Amino acid sequence: MSGLPSVDEIRSRIERIPKKPFRMACKAAYLFAARICEIVGKAYPYEKCYGVRGSDVFLDSYREGSDKFEAVVFRVQTAKRNGAIRNIGLPVDYEPWATELYEYFQEFGEDYVFYFTRQKVWREVRDYFKDLSYPIEEYYYVDKKTGKLKKKPAHERQFTLHALRHLRATELVEFYGFDGFNLAAYCGWTIRTAQAQFGVNVPKVMARYLYLNWQLYFPKLLKRRS
Q1: In the chain, is it the N or the C terminus that has fewer CB atoms within a 10 Å radius of its CB?
Q2: Burial 157-183 (b: 16+ CB within 10 A, else e)
Q3: Rounded to two decimals, what is the model's pTM?
């Protein structure tokens, strides 16, 4: 298997996408570790989307002792959880795309920020990723027919929009030190998935708190890339 493309390589390719709406859509999909249907506001009749609106962002801060860190917080609906909201908190001084995305969202008010289909996004950006692939490690998933956990063997995939979510999740683990609990909060995984993959035990009564409280993982994002 070939290795996962580097974060710097993917960020550079995204920056080269000439049309701003699609460049910003890729930045959002990457930073939010989002499925593309959680970003776009338009879908074909047989599909469903949970697109972000211009109002789905706010400014906040995180305090650690006497230190204060400014944050941009985005509200994202989680597709695999019937649109349940998760908050993505990003440190302004450590994530260069955070303020840029915030300012872009401000242009749209209550309207969808990315009012086009996921297929449209891919048509516009695929040439920037067409020579890439990425490895998928074996993983567990819930079988829709039986409701039981099953294991998917390791395999290779072409780099697509969904790979942005995979790359971000990998970065969160390998560079920022996220554990299963943090990933569940950030990526919108179900508690059951987090427990299966990482052995993380989260009481059901904490589930909603987990997805909304970005401050749970925020301190780990206070780290600069060289």
Answers
A1: C
A2: eebbbbbbbbbbbbbbeeeeebebbbb
A3: 0.85
